[in-house]
Design goal:
The protein is of the alpha+beta class. It has 3 domains: 133-448, Rossmann fold; 459-553, Immunoglobulin-like (Sandwich), CATH 2.60.40; 583-745, no CATH class. The protein is 14% helix and 31% strand. A hairpin with a 2-residue loop joins strand 25 (594-605) and strand 26 (608-616). Helix 5 (214-223) packs parallel to helix 8 (377-394), helix 8 (377-394) crosses helix 9 and helix 8 packs parallel to helix 10. The longest helix is centred in the middle third of the chain and has 18 residues, at 377-394.
Length: 752
């Protein structure tokens, strides 16, 4: 997306209070207005390299550590001082900017004077940067023990992307932040020698990096160790990280350092530059640096900003920079329920959203010496940076804008307002909270994946005179969402083998199907061989796929059948009035209410262990302590809407009147049963009796004795954020409740 920003000149017009977005919700007193806006006694100027009185200087061969002792650099620095009449503190004549020393208090006057020089493009303060808090097969699942805590990975379908790629060691993501804890095993072999712009150190010290953990947390989201049996998993675990420290231990940094880091990252070959930073004023210097970086082939990804506590988080809140600048992919934040995060600010420059979490449930990642939750658009941005790295694996020649477009075009158009539950509109394909949608990294990767046809296996047919014709469907898979159009031809065996249809298309998730038909006809007993060729028609240049086929014609084929074993005749009902029960309690529930119970044994539900359950009068059970919704759900399982962490035994608007009962009992020490008996469906005379049995061994079983309408409720289960769900029946669709039988739930995450 190309965005135009109107420059506003003047001392305070270009303030960039770059705020690293993380940790606990800020107090109103921490609002940006109370902080210093720029470094006293310093001014930045910029000019077009090679034009004006400053001679052109060739770039240094070492981008991170330029040889400023070169004669041409020194001559250019002397010329800058002579032309401006001010001491030069730092200069990058190869990129056309310098930091000048002025008398404190005279910054505005010197800026006005410098702007009058015909060769000076801009003059502005050396702004300060701050950290701002935002909050106290087709899939592959890693063995990292904390992966179940990384709900954000499930929400963007990281396992679907990991089945295709985990990035490339030749790919570099620059992280401009507070540094990184180099001692963490999660980063072994991934960290390039970085640079400390804050303390003006050439290399980040190995034992004292990132005391605030912000940069470490961001780096962990991108590239923490994968499948190493410890900690968390990074979204792009195979990439290299270039850590560039631009914020100090107080999460404050000088603007000149950030500009140099952007330029150095691009000159060092970083394909992605992650800036989990925001500010509130347009800056020509920052825009110029980003434009230079984009021209060198870097994609700049920036956090879209957090609205601190005590402010109105709507479109009237100040614009965030660098997110609002041209050539920046601006990332907003979503919650684990695909709602705009509480701190999210709706802005027209938001390009895409990714999970940023909330104070109640943040993003779990690496911290200094440990692991922890942080929340904010600081956490959203590195997810998009990592996704860009994965996508670029399959499109190495793509320009930054092409990668940004691909991420936007494959995003999920999801989201709902937290206050009303109403879906976010996507007028014109976007909105100001989520941009083009919430990141779907698996879809992005599959869209970038080079298209091809996956060969079906060899097909074998066995026929005789009593069964002379046999048909079989084969599928032509494609690992990419980019469709392949193909033509099917029988190139050998046409006397007995046919293939139809002649033409088809294949894409990831929608394999093309070809029906093969073997006809023994008048063939003599023996073996016959055939070959079906699938020739790609578009895109051009793809290799054809051959499917071998073999027909055996026998004089006579004999068949035998094994005897039927087992029982399919229902399930054992547990009597709620069992006089021998270990424990029994009749719940006195009013309409649309529930009761919280202590379970007699721990229950494992979607990867988490629970000792509490809340039984709703409306035919559902939620796990965890308190806060669960008791009304029947308005949506089918798997959407993130309340109730969550729930088993929908037969969820509907039931009425617990005088004739109805909800009973819990223990038939034995290893079972716990909830029975809804003679509950009445609201507005009707129809009554139902059903129950849920929980076993200590992890068995979840619903039994149905009587229902007024076997299709009239919801049967299923859902994890605490809706990323994992089972849907048996909902809104009339699916399998009806088996009256007289049972449904067995399997609320187990795929990584267990």
């Amino acid at each position: 997306m190309i965005r135009r920003v109107r420059p506003i000149r003047g001392l305070f017009a270009a303030l960039l209070a770059l705020l690293a977005l993380c940790s606990a919700l800020p107090a109103p007193a921490a609002a940006q207005e109370t902080r210093p806006r720029f470094v006293p006694g310093e001014v930045l100027i910029g000019w077009t390299p090679g034009k004006g009185p400053v001679a052109s200087v060739r770039p240094s061969p070492n981008a991170l550590h330029p040889d400023t002792a070169q004669p041409d650099w020194q001559a250019a620095t002397r010329e800058i001082a002579a032309q401006t009449g001010l001491p030069v503190l730092e200069a990058r004549p190869d990129h056309g900017f310098a930091l000048l020393k002025v008398r404190a208090g005279r910054e505005a006057a010197e800026i006005a004077r410098l702007e009058s020089l015909p060769w000076v493009r801009y003059a502005e303060p050396n702004f300060l940067a701050y950290a701002a808090d935002a909050g106290p097969g087709d899939a592959y699942y890693p063995n990292d023990p904390d992966y179940p805590l990384q709900w954000h990975m499930q929400r963007v379908d990281a396992p679907g992307a990991w089945a295709a790629t985990r990035g490339s060691l030749s790919f570099i993501v620059a992280v401009l932040d507070t540094g990184v804890d180099r001692s963490r095993p999660e980063f072994a072999g991934k960290l390039l020698p970085g640079k400390n712009y804050v303390e003006k150190q050439t290399v980040l010290p190995p034992d004292d990096d990132d005391p605030e953990s912000h940069g470490t947390h961001v780096t962990g989201i991108i590239a923490a160790g994968f499948d190493n049996g410890q900690g968390v998993a990074g979204l792009a675990p195979a990439v290299k990280i270039l850590p560039l420290k631009v914020l100090n231990s107080a999460r404050t940094g000088a603007y000149v350092d950030i500009i140099q880091a952007v330029l150095d990252a691009a000159n060092s070959g970083a394909q992605v530059i992650n800036m989990s930073l925001v500010g509130y004023d347009y800056s020509q210097a920052l825009q110029a640096a980003i434009d230079d970086a984009t021209g060198l082939g870097s994609l700049v990804v920036a956090a879209a900003g957090n609205c601190p506590a005590g402010f109105t988080c709507d479109s009237t809140y100040a614009n965030a920079y660098p997110a609002a600048l041209t050539n920046v992919l601006a990332v907003g934040a979503s919650s684990r329920f695909d709602q705009p995060a509480p701190y999210a600010v709706p802005k027209p420059y938001v390009d895409i959203a990714a999970p940023g979490g909330t104070a109640e449930r943040g993003i779990w990642s690496v911290t200094r010496g440990s692991y922890g939750y942080l929340a904010g658009t600081s956490m959203s941005a590195p997810m998009v940076s990592a996704a860009a790295a994965l996508v670029w694996t399959f499109k190495p020649a793509a320009a930054p804008a092409e990668i940004a477009d691909l991420l936007r075009n494959t995003a999920d158009k999801v989201g709902a307002y937290a206050s009303s539950g109403q879906p976010l509109p996507y007028a014109g394909g976007r909105n100001d909270y989520f941009g083009s949608g919430r990141l779907n990294v698996a879809r992005a990767v599959r869209q970038a994946y080079p298209p091809s046809l996956i060969p079906p296996p060899e097909q074998r047919f066995l026929l005789d005179q009593t069964r002379s014709v046999q048909t079989r469907a084969i599928q032509a898979g494609n690992p990419s969402y980019q469709a392949v159009l193909w033509q099917a031809d029988v190139v050998h065996g046409a006397e007995w083998l046919t293939a139809s249809p002649r033409n088809g298309a294949s894409a990831y998730g929608a394999p093309g199907e070809v029906m093969l038909r073997a006809d023994a006809g008048n063939l003599a007993p023996g073996q016959y061989f055939g070959l079906v060729r699938l020739t790609p028609l578009a895109p051009s240049g793809l290799a054809p796929v051959d499917v071998p086929a073999q027909l055996t014609v026998a004089a006579r084929v004999s068949r035998s059948f094994l005897p039927l074993s087992g029982s399919l005749f229902g399930d054992t009902w547990r009597d709620p009035d069992d006089p021998n029960a270990v424990y029994r309690l009749e719940l006195n529930l009013a309409n649309d209410t529930g009761a919280q119970l202590v379970l007699p044994f721990p229950v494992r539900f979607y990867g988490a262990t629970h000792q509490f359950a809340q039984v709703s009068e409306n035919g559902l059970v939620t796990f965890g302590s308190g806060g669960a919704a008791l009304l029947p759900p308005a949506f089918c399982p798997g959407n993130g809407a309340a109730p969550n962490n729930a088993l929908y035994v037969f969820a509907a608007d039931w009425v617990d009147d005088d004739a109805a009962r909800v009973v819990v009992h223990q038939p034995n020490a290893d079972s716990f049963v909830v029975t809804w008996q003679d509950v009445r469906l609201a507005g009707t005379d129809g009554r139902a009796t059903f129950q849920l049995a929980l076993g200590r061994d992890g068995d979840f079983r619903a039994r149905y004795r009587a229902l007024p309408d076997p299709r009239g409720g919801i049967i299923g289960s859902e994890s605490d954020d809706g990323t994992l769900a089972e849907q048996v029946l909902c809104q009339g669709a699916g399998r009806p409740a088996p009256v007289g039988g049972a449904v067995v739930f399997r609320p187990q995450p795929p990584w267990e």
